[in-house]
Structure formats: C-alpha cells, structure tokens
Amino acid sequence: xxxxxxxxxxxxxxxxxxxxxxxxxxxxxxxxxxxxxxxxxxxxxxxxxxxxxxxxxxxxxxxxxxxxxxxxxxxxxxxxxxxxxxxxxxxxxxxxxxxxxxxxxxxxxxxxxxxxxxxxxxxxxxxxxxxxxxxxxxxxxxxxxxxxxxxxxxxxxxxxxxxxxxxxxxxxxxxxxxxxxxxxxxxxxxxxxxxxxxxxxxxxxxxxxxxxxxxxxxxxxxxxxxxxxxxxxxxxxxxxxxxxxxxxxxxxxxxxxxxxxxxxxxxxxxxxxxxxxxxxxxxxxxxxxxxxxxxxxxxxxxxxxxxxxxxxxxxxxxxxxxxxxxxxxxxxxxxxxxxxxxxxxxxxxxxxxxxxxxxxxxxxxxxxxxxxxxxxxxxxxxxxxxxxxxxxxxxxxxxxxxxxxxxxxxxxxxxxxxxxxxxxxxxxxxxxxxxxxxxxxxxxxxxxxxxxxxxxxxxxxxxxxxxxxxxxxxxxxxxxxxxxxxxxxxxxxxxxxxxxxxxxxx
Length: 506
Prior knowledge:
The chain has 20 helices and 21 strands. The chain is of the alpha/beta class.
C-alpha cells in the first residue's frame, strides 16, 4: 500500500525527527497535532497542523484534537469499495495511509504517585481511537505505536517504492491492538484499586521468552511477564520451563530466612535446608538431609556465593545455583561448567503477590502464602511447653514445610532439616517417609521438631513422629480429634503447639 499521507501524534518523541525527515524525503505529506507539529517545525520539517487539515480547532485544552470525521474516515475507508470512494469524494475526505501514535504516560504518572486528577488527565482518548481505526483497516493503513518499529517501516518504504507490505501492516496492527488493550487494562486496574474484588480479570503480560518446550518435550511453552525483573541469568544455557518453576520455588523458600541459609530443591520440593554463619557449614547441613535427592537439583543461597561454598557445591552435580550474588573467584570457578545455570536474585517477591493457576477453562487466583515477617505465633496445647531450643526447631521447620507439597511433614532442628516427607496422600505416610529419609541419611531425630503443614487427622501421625524421636510438634490444629491427639502428645511427654494457620501446597 502506497503511503502518501501520514498522521503523527506522539508523546514519546524518541527517534521522531529523523523518522519524519525521511518520510518527507520520500514525499509523504505529514499531518500532526500541535505539540508534535512544533517539534517538527523547529527542525524545518514541513507539516500540516491537524486543525488546519480538519478545519476544526483543538479544543478543551487539547482534549479534543483528532476526534473528527475527516481523520477517522480518512483512516477507515476501504479503498477498493466503490461506495466508500464515492462518499469520501462527496465529503472531501482525504486518505491517511500511515499513523504514528504513542500514548500519554498514564502508567508512569500513576506509578510515580501522581494525584488522582493528574493521573486521570493522562488517560488518552484520541490516541487509542486513531490507533484502533488504523489497525482495523490495516489492509490499507500502516499503524506504528512503538519507536522501535520506525526502522522497519522506513526500510520497507525505501525498498518498495514508498509502499509497505501486508505482512508488516498486519504485525503492526496486532501490536497496536495489544498496546490499546494494555493501556485500558492499566486504567482499569488503577480505577478499581480500592475494590476488594474485580468482576473481570484481564492479563496483560509481555512475552519474556519462547521456551524450547514445556514440562515435557512434546509440550510447547512460553514465558510471559516480569520474571527477569526478579532474577537475572549470569551463566548457562537457555532456561527451561522446569528450570523456571524450580527457580521461582527456590526464591520463595529462601525468602523465609534472614540468617545465612542454603536450601536445595528438586521438582520444586525442598530436599534440605541449613542455616549457619558459615555458608559452607550451612551447605553441609542442607546437603546431609537427602544427598541422593540433591543430585541435579537447585541450590539457593540468601547470601553471595563464596569460592569456598562454590567448591563445596561442585562436589555434586547441580543444575542451577541461585544467590544474591557471586564473589569474583566463585563466579570464575563456577562458570567453567558450561551447562550450569547461575542466577542472581534482584528482588524478593512482594508480600502482596498473587498466584494464578489454570483450571478447566478458568484461572484460580489467590494471595500468595507469603513469609510471616512478624515471627512465629502459636498456642501451646500440651501439658509441657516447648523449650527455647524446641521453639527454634519448630520455627525453622515451619518455614520449610509450607514450601513442601502436601501432605507434608518435616523433621527439623533449630538450624537444619533432618527428614522431609513430601506429597503423600496420607499424613502418616508423610511422617514415616520423613523419618525413613532421616534414617537413610544417618541422622538422629532424637529431640527434633515434627512440623506438619496441616492438622493431624488422627493420633497415628503424631505417634509415628514420637516413635521416630521427635519431642515437639507444630501443626495448625483444628481436627475433629484434636483432643485425642493432644492426649497422645501428653502421654509421650511431647510439647505441641497449634498455629491456626494451614500451609497446604498442591
């Protein structure tokens, strides 16, 4: 489609002058709104003010500029349709073949805390209207909403004697509709910010990466959103779908801890967690819980990786190391492994974050089970209260068990996990598997805390924990048989606390 006339109305004037200058060289007549026109006129680029083109002034302080039949008819008319051609001739409508529009900075104004009136004033009306008209008629009109596309448009015009291809127009039209959709969603979010529940959910997430495949090789997959605002990849091949899931889970887990801590995860489940002022000792504690399961796992650390820690980790095969940073010697040492992913944590998840999952044509939304920054709250329900050391052990395990797939039981000391029972259909099996894991690792559970993500429905799970060596139990409580379970704890001299908070993870 030959481009003879262009309409330009932009807030972001990046690259505008050289772009418009080249259009002028190609013989394209340029129409522009007042602010854009002034910018071009200063540079000596010929331009026709939109008010001159329409014969109607810009009014209401610029709120009405391009909302005029001469503009929209010039964009929307179908060049091949005889009736349209007759009408535009009758009413003196001139075709507009190219639109360059970007919108008022609504999001930026809202993000910097502008007043309600300031933010409202940045809701663009004419811009989205022009974009939609041009994009609807992309068979004949080229619409550009991003300065990054100026080069492509100029290349096509130069290569094709002043014409653009349908392929380019179609791609830019899709981008244009995505732009207006995103803009409207931002406005909706802002205006509904005081509402507890919105009656519609519109997801507007940019494509972050096309992945080689999904959870399995036969599944296609993509990543959308701001994942790389939270972590950056410093080394290694392209991340897979499963890598991204594991990294996300690892950051969520390690964010629970303020003291120097190392955690190892596999298939999003913790294999072991250890805390110690010495990161190497923290690693040894984490690794001792389930060394075989650590093979091929993800290591996450809430401190920069030291060379000593890097050398210790390298004694086993791991796929990913996630940390707040890497000391120079450690990074040089680790990057020798070409396929090892090294990820740096840039920011922690928001405590106000939401989680989404797709289910049968729907999306489930919930608040994230965020870290409890106020410390552990509980009610002692046993005859014997827990000792200070037992409280520390319960607190440690409680941070971990919420990140284990349900049903979950974790045995812990005040600074490390001893056994983890994950994803079992019965809670007693989770307790028994966690104890078996500890025995396999040669770890004693004597004096440990048994941490259960949900209540024990029967006394058998607690009894299994007691027989394994646990002396204290932390659980939400709330079972029909709570009194029986409390009685079983007292009979075995165990301390038990209820938190009133469940940590199911499906």
